[in-house]
Amino acid sequence: MDYKKVLTVQDISCYGQCSLTVALPILSAAGLETCILPSAVLSTHTAGFSGYTFRDLTDDIPAITKHWQKENIRFDAIYTGYLGSTQQIAYVMDMMKNLRKKEFVSFVDPAMADNGRLYPAFDAAFVEEMKKLAFSADIILPNITEACFLTGSKYEEKYDAAYIDELLGRLRAEGAGTIILTGVSFSDTTTGVMVLDGDNKSYYEHRKIPKGSHGTGDVYASAFVGAYLRGSSAYESAGIAAEYTVRCIENTIDDPEHWYGVKFEPVLPYLIERLK
Ligand code: PXL
Question: Which uninterrupted H or E stretch holds 92?
Fold first, then answer.
């Protein structure tokens, strides 16, 4: 079997089932050698907990990159998620340049916003820098809020197909490669993912679970990266990741104490089966 080496750069939220504590097990289960670079260490994620600690690891990144370069460590892919600072984004762009194998794919989940708002740690300067990273990536995985921030578009809770086409067009005009736009819903009972791969637009629709869950963007992006690097097309990967994420939410929904993330681990066998 083809055995790819992926680097994922995102935070460690020690408690809360998101970012690296989700990406590492999912990418490993997908059969990839998974290297990690923590962008920051937090006691918990920032969505619903208060008083969390936050240690920014930005200053460690240049030396880590330099060491890996010296050791001739190179990656088949780099996948970025929640980053710790504006400065860090430039360092990550350097890594994309200097640590790539000849055949290389970059995935950027511009994890910075949801439900019309930026996450607490971020500001306009961060968004400006994230545009550079996102629009230089091969594949981006924004939700609708993030697509709006990346393109300066107005966020609408209710929208139609023309609004989504306009967003895709603006992302493309700014230089986006393959676009995986998540959380696109045209009905009360379904939601889905809009994929723009070259000139091919396709929509993967699936059932909607009537309750928001934390960390599902990270579950989705990690499963997508896993499927894609195992040889699925962008559209197939979008579908596999969607079905996996829905099952993770369904596995969690009846437990009111588990509000901070999804129980994705018991569902890993489903993902592994889909990747055979
Ligand atoms: O799931 C995205 C995410 C990742 N990391 C941290 C977060 C969030 C979302 O709020 O707070 C620290």
Answer: helix 86-98
pLDDT for residue 25 is more than 80: yes
CA-based nearest residue to 127, from 110, 141, 140? 110
pLDDT at 2: 85
Question: Do residues 189 and 208 make contact, with C-beta atoms less than 8 angstroms apart?
Answer: yes
**What superfamily would CATH give domain 5-275?**
Ribokinase (3.40.1190.20)
What's residue 211's pLDDT? 80
**Is pLDDT above 80 for 212?**
no
Q: CA–CA separation, 88 vs 262, rounded Å?
A: 28
**CB-ligand 1 contact for 77 (6 Å cutoff):** no
Cα gap 72→104, rounded to integer Å: 15
- Residue 95 banded pLDDT, cuts 50, 70, 90: very high
- Which residue's CA is the closest to the ligand 1 atom numbered 8? 45
217 lines ligand 1 (CB under 6 A): yes
pLDDT at 215: 94
Which among 39, 82, 245 is the best mutation to test ligand 1's pocket, defined by most ligand atoms within 8 Å of the CB? 82
The mean pLDDT of 10-39, rounded to a whole number, is: 98
Which residue has the CA at smallest separation from atom 7 of ligand 1? Answer: 45
Select from 8, 9, 10, 11 the residue to mutate for testing ligand 1; criterion: most ligand atoms less than 8 Å from CB: 11
pLDDT in tens, 129-157: 999 999 999 999 999 999 999 999 999 99
Q: Please give, one letter per residue, the 3-state secondary structure of 229-250.
A: HCCCCHHHHHHHHHHHHHHHHH
Q: CA 46, CA 54: separation in Å to the nearest integer?
A: 10
